[in-house]
Amino acid sequence: MNTLIKNGTIVNEGLSCKGSLLINGGYIKKIFKEIPENEGYNEDIAECQKSVAENGGEIIDASGLHILPGVIDDQVHFREPGGEQKATIESESKAAILGGVTSFMDMPNNTPAATTIEQLEKKFSIAAKNSYANYSFYLGATNRNIGQIKNADKRRVCGIKLFMGSSTGNMLVDDPVALEKIFAESPLLIATHCEDETIIKRNLDRYKQKYGEEIPFDMHSEIRSREACIECSKRAIDYAIRNNSRLHILHISTAEEIEMLKEAHKINPAITGEICVHYLWFSKEDFPILGSKIKCNPSIKESSDREALRKAVKDGTIRVVATDHAPHTLQEKQQPYLAAPSGLPTIQHSLQIMTELVNKGIFTLEEVAEAMCHGPAECFDIAERGYIREGYKADLVLLDMNRKYTVTPDNIAYKCKWSPFEGYTFSSSVIHTFINGKPVVKNGSLTGIRAATELKFNR
Predict the structure, then answer these.
(1) Residue range 73-132, pLDDT digits in tens
(2) What is 71-379's CATH superfamily?
(3) DSSP strand E in 361-412: where?
(4) DSSP state of 133
(5) Which residue spans within 269-336 are E strands per DSSP?
(6) H-only helix segments in 315-430
(7) Whole-model pTM?
(8) H/E element, 375
(9) Interhelix angle 117-130/89-98, nearest 10 degrees
(10) Running DSSP on this structure, what letter comes out for residue 374?
(11) What fold characterizes domain 3-67+390-409+421-446?
């Protein structure tokens, strides 16, 4: 069945213009643009609309809406298997599509950890049955699984996740020989969590001595310090330069790491980085109000870091903005500092966070499409997604930039049922989401249609 999305504003590849899209068989079949050199636009749309209607297709009037490629999130923790009380692939992928995220790449720190191809296949099987968004999964690195890494299917597995600092779960890789082998021999992108364990432990001991068991949450950025991030990112970059590796540094949080990334990219263009939406929105000044709700690893840091990260997105130093969506139950998060786990849920509202920054004059909508759609597709060599192009998969999100949306307990779709944005009113709303040409969200509500497939990579 054909679907015609007509008269919206298409935002794609650095440009915005009025246009329409014809979808057929899960793909974008035809793009119509209302531009000066296309004087026959109205006639073409009228003819297409007539044909679609006569053949029982669907026509969606997108007047007043912006049409973007579906968002691709390269870093999520959907907690399944082993953490289903917090989240599942089904629950969090529903939240994702409500927020216009059509594809995700899930992390391996599950129970059991996805550090073998066998465990990875189990996650693919769960997603094939239950996911509402397109999916791939990282294989987790350990000190002893280089054989598994070398045998990973490059067309199916998005990358290798390397914890050079420990976070939720314990998958720390700290053996220099193992690290050298991973950087030298991995056939896949190496995505790193960079925080130096020795520095963090030293900082934690100092604050335990000062505060005992009642460490204030606003000390988190001092414990998971900028020095810990800088030192570990420098080490990862050194490994990648020495071995000519494909390195992708996740959740960069400091201005210094941005400068290091610029210099590293000159030597090895295959070294890239990612920023998460919470580092672009919050600063350490938000801890007294939000406390544990914004406790995450790496920590949220100074407002000056936030400004540097925003600049890096604007100037193209960073081409991937994601979420590190990491839900925990509210009961867990309400514990004292030492017991409260790190991580916050953001995937349902990540695109709205970025469009709010558009409405505040910080980004353009074209820059958001670059950082959340085009950049991830290019970074991971994703086949046929991330752009609005004829012959590409019809993964699309339709936005109303002027329809306000207040986050409430009733509309939070995460299984954990809380958000650090609860009570905030965004000035834009996700209206429709299409995955592989199917309407999975209509008028802001789930349709119940599952249209997701595995992501494929051009490797």
Answers:
(1) 999 999 999 999 999 999 999 999 999 999 999 999 999 999 999 999 999 999 999 999
(2) Metal-dependent hydrolases (3.20.20.140)
(3) 396-400, 405-406
(4) S
(5) 271-276, 320-322
(6) 330-333, 350-359, 365-369, 375-379
(7) 0.97
(8) helix 375-379
(9) 60
(10) I
(11) Urease, subunit C; domain 1 (2.30.40)
